[in-house]
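Appendix C reproduces, verbatim, an entry submitted by the partner laboratory led by Prof. M.T., so that reviewers can inspect both the input and the predicted structure.
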Amino acid sequence: MHEKSEIHRIFEEPDTAFGAKAMIVRNLFISPGHNFFGHHGQEAGKSPLLEVPEIECVAGHGVRGDRFFDHKADYKGQITFFSSEVFEDVCRSLDAGETSPGAARRNVVTHGVDLNTLVGKRFSVQGVEFEGVCECKPCYWMDQAIAPGAEEALQGRGGLRARILSNGILRPD
């Protein structure tokens, strides 16, 4: 129980005594359809990726308006997070140019937190509670979406899949 309150405090108090930075929300994305999921052996889909000023997190269901909303009961990827630091490093190392962080098709682009440390933890961002479930493992589509070599470059740092535990709205900081 103590660990949960520490994690909760890290994200709610930027000047925390734990020495960790607060998670900063940089960008928010939704897509009404799948471009890669379920397209193995086919061409990528054409569903638009929309950068939005806010997202509505619905406990147990997902992000309203996103392709994984009510995907299936207790789905581990009700919301996904991706590190802007990782994205910038991958783009720099692969000379990906002006690629949008939305290319990874994660919902929340963050700054300031190692997302891998949240696997198996409950945490809160802007008053919304989440449970980190597992890494968003990169797939071969990342080589097309970001740049050749992206799948390999993202191994072990492809982002975070999480369950939404409370309702709320996220906005870029």
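The beta strands are 24-30, 50-51, 55-58, 62-63, 79-83, 108-111, 122-125, 128-135, 160-164, 168-170. Additional entries are available on request from the coordinating office.
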